[in-house]
Amino acid sequence: METIVIQFLHGLAYGMLLFLVASGLTLVFGMMSVLNIAHVSFYMLGAYLSYTMLKVVDNFWIGLIICPVLVAITGIAMERFILRRVHTAGHVQEFVITFGILFALNEVIKWVWGSENLSVPIPSALSGSLLIMGHIYPAYRLFILFFSLFILALLAFILMKTRLGITVRAMVSDRDMASALGTNTPFVFMLVMGIGSWLAGLAGVIAAPFLGISSGMGLDFLTDCFIVTVTGGLGSLWGAVVASFLIGQLSSFGILFMPRFAIVFGFLLMAVVLVIKPSGLFGEKA
Amino acid sequence: MAELVEKPRNILELKGIYKDFEGLQVLFDIDLGVQESERHAIIGPNGAGKSTLFNLITGKYHPSRGKIFLKGEDITGANPFKLNRLGMARSFQITNIFQTMTVFENVRNAILSKNKIRYNIFSRLSKMDGINRQTEKVLHEIGLLERKDDIAGELSYGQQRALEIGLAIATNPELILLDEPTAGMSSEETREAVKLIQRVTEGKTLIIVEHDMEVVFSIADRISVIYYGKVLASGLPDEIRNDQKVKDAYLGEERE
Amino acid sequence: MTNRNLYLLAGITVGVLAVLFPHISPRFQLRMVTEIVILSLLVMTWKMMLNEGGLFSFGHAVYFGLGAYASVIAWLNIKGLSFIGGILLGGIVAGFISFFLGAFLVRMSGTYYALLTLAFNQLIWAIVWKWRSVTGGDDGLGRFPKPDLLGISMRDPVNFYYLSLVIVALCMSLCHYFSKTPLGNVVKGIKSNEERSKFIGFNVNASKLIFLTLLGFFAGVSGALYAQFQEFISASSIDLVMSTHVIFMAFIGGVGHFWGPLLGSGIYVYLSEYLSHYTDRWELIFGIVVVILVLLAPQGILGITKKRK
């Protein structure tokens, strides 16, 4: 019984991380109809930047604040200078270029930080453990959980209650209409891109002490992230919430039962969902 | 009405059809019968549900409730391609041809389907004389033989509409559904189109949605009036013309 | 008509050069050109999937890699399996996988299709990587037989080059012929107007599926050839990086062009060879080149030379 709770919490934490990254991806797609494959490298970038930040400042919390912002700037720059120009050329070009950027970013990361695995220590404030149901559970994982929930709540609040949020939702829902109503489209694009990459960078920073930093981390996460996005439905935040929860759990329990091929479970879920509803759980036009 | 020795068979039957889209009710309790070989027109104001009805019959949408029968067989919810293979074909209100292919290739697509040549990876298309002949025959019928090597997207509107009809008849269906075939046409083009339609639907069953009353009354054997998702009236043209309900609701508003 | 004659002339020139090549160039060049020829078949299948099927495949390495593994495992375990037999087997297995995946993927729209192929690539790569007993995992498989063909030794690079040339040319002509067949025409029609294709009686999903299966077969043939070329196969032939390279190769050459795949693989092989002498970071440069290329020449290099507008 305790194992189940522990695994559940673990899956929840991982699911939250997935959500942070997938939400950015799905928002950008919903809004700009651009599938930014390079999105996951923001996650990686966040993690690597936090490593360097720790070397420089030796304070996890400062890193938590600054690194995602740096990543957001990268994301905005990417949108402004590259993506925007490709948008008119067509979907194929968008795919190729975002793929190229993913590739290039990964290589840059390897170049700057090397290919060996790096480790980031858990901040001392969170390095303890708690006793949950007779099991020792690392406090840091709980932090990931609650912090992500907090961010999620913040995001929900912004989207539901603020004027900006409503604008964003309107644009995701019907871009042409929203721009006809006078919203400043390029500005909102930039904002969404910025927020999306910020979220991904944030996820990277908090994931680093938990999952470790490696040159392959992007790729592993990439698959799960895409599975989440597709299963939830491209463009749907709710879909991302539900799907990341499910995938998080499947991943966590899957490793328990079939450690070598746990990855299959996520796929099976995705396959089942897509067979029943080809546009994903909450996706609209396929 | 005279008693007939044998009641003409209904090639198409709709029983108790309802259709709603996410809460918006578009069609209510539609009962409709179309007799074999008749020319049946469906008229009604914009938004009344005519196109939805068409889309239901031809498999693009599935009814929320009710059943559809083709030649006595339940086809409710069947796929468009299966319906075509069962002998039903349609044209579209908004031209839906193969824009990037030539006129010849457009019609040939349908001819290949008619001849059940779908998965062949061995024969050379250019050498299939029978196919090519059948294609040219249809092209001749729709008057586009001289334009056969032109890209479909470059034809004039009227020619594209003719091709649109051509694609519908090329698979040699027993039941043809034309969705506002004369939409956007000048009177001259409309007259030509009507002649074309009468020619190519000879001996077949035709269901036609139309706004142009002249066209309707010159083609139709029977007319059904759809008004706000319900069948307001159904019967012979003269009956419809004199039906008070219809006059109040529709013919009075729409002076064609 | 001059355009047509020009193409014919270009084709003959290339053909003649191709045949004479081993006798007019140094050995290591021959090796590179062989690699280019083999890869261009793979790239061509990707290009066809996009151009004619309208589908952007992010996981093409799957067919390539599985075809390679299948043939290698066959050569290792089936005593006396011929060269061509192994190649065919590789193609058939890849075709099978393509059919299996395709049955699921075919109803997906463009973006979902792309994402799913990427996800499946990762899945299959992970399985291949972890199943060490069969695939050798990270270490890969080597030292498999290189059977003679009709008594001619395939160990001789010149012979191997000619064989690759023949096989690839054959496969390419078959693919080219495909567009002139009824099924090729259906696929073309689906690309032009998928909805109308349905309404005139075509089972669009089934047609697409057969098309994908055929492409998978040829990609597998390419993989099997490649395995013999390298005399080694590892999970790196089936990973996302490989899929990425396929996309880049196709793109650099120009997706709309007949010679695109050849040009693209040529640039790729030469670039990787020369750049890797100067820097370990040639992949980075490759990525940057692609990004710049898309910005400046969205239709690939051959797209620039395309005068028709």
Q: Any idea how many domains of chain B?
A: 1
Radius of gyration of chain B: 19 Å
Span between N and C termini of chain A?
Answer: 41 Å
Number of strands of chain A: 2
The count of helical stretches of chain B stands at 9
Unreliable residue runs of chain B: none
Average of the residue pLDDT scores of chain B: 88
What string, H for helix and E for strand, traces the elements of chain B in order? Answer: EEEHEEHEHHHEHEHEEHH
Note poorly predicted spans of chain A: none
Helical run tally of chain A: 11
Strand residue content of chain B: 15-25%
CATH architecture of chain B: 3-Layer(aba) Sandwich
CATH topology of chain B: Rossmann fold
Features:
heterotrimer, A: 286 residues, mainly alpha, two-stranded antiparallel ribbon, 2 strands, 76% helix, B: 256 residues, alpha/beta, Rossmann fold, six-stranded mixed β-sheet
Describe this structure in words.
The complex is a heterotrimer of chains A (286), B (256) and C (309). Chain A has 286 residues and is an all-alpha fold. Chain A has eleven helices and two strands, in the order H-H-H-H-E-E-H-H-H-H-H-H-H. In chain A, 76% of the residues lie in helices and 3% in strands. A two-stranded antiparallel sheet of chain A has the order 1-2. In chain A, a hairpin with a 2-residue loop joins strand 1 (129-132) and strand 2 (135-138). The N and C termini of chain A lie far apart (41 Å). In chain B, helix 3 (103-114) packs parallel to helix 5 (157-170), helix 4 crosses helix 5 (157-170) and helix 5 packs parallel to helix 6 (187-200). Chain B starts with 9 loop residues before the first strand and ends in a 5-residue tail after the last helix. Chain C has a two-stranded antiparallel ribbon. Chains in contact: A-C, B-C. The A-C interface holds A 29, 35, 82, 85-86, 89-93, 95-97, 99-101, 103-104, 107-108, 111, 219, 222-223, 226-227, 229-230, 234, 260-261, 263-264, 267, 270-271, 274-275, 278-280, 286 and C 50, 56, 58, 104, 107-112, 114-116, 118-120, 122-123, 126-127, 130, 240, 244, 247-248, 251, 255, 281, 283-284, 286-288, 290-291, 294-295, 298.
Give me the secondary-structure topology.
The complex is a heterotrimer of chains A (286), B (256) and C (309).
Chain A lengths: L1 H31 L6 H19 L2 H27 L4 H23 L15 E4 L2 E4 H23 L1 H11 L1 H6 L4 H27 L5 H16 L4 H21 L5 H14 L10
Antiparallel strand pairs in A: 1-2
Helix pairs in contact in A: 1-5, 1-6, 1-8, 1-9, 1-10, 2-3, 2-4, 2-8, 2-9, 3-8, 5-6, 5-8, 9-10, 9-11, 10-11
Chain B lengths: L9 E12 L2 E12 L3 E5 L6 H8 L7 E6 L2 E2 L5 H6 L2 E3 L12 H12 L14 H13 L15 H14 L4 E5 L7 H14 L4 E5 L3 H7 L2 E6 L2 E6 L1 H6 L1 H8 L5
Parallel strand pairs in B: 3-8, 3-9, 6-7, 7-8
Antiparallel strand pairs in B: 1-2, 1-4, 4-5, 9-10
Helix pairs in contact in B: 3-4, 3-5, 4-5, 5-6
Chain C lengths: L1 H23 L2 H25 L9 H17 L5 H23 L4 H21 L1 H4 L5 E2 L14 H22 L3 H11 L1 H6 L4 H27 L1 E2 L6 H14 L6 H19 L3 H15 L4 H5 L4
Antiparallel strand pairs in C: 1-2
Helix pairs in contact in C: 2-7, 2-10, 2-11, 2-12, 3-4, 3-10, 4-10, 7-10, 8-10, 11-12
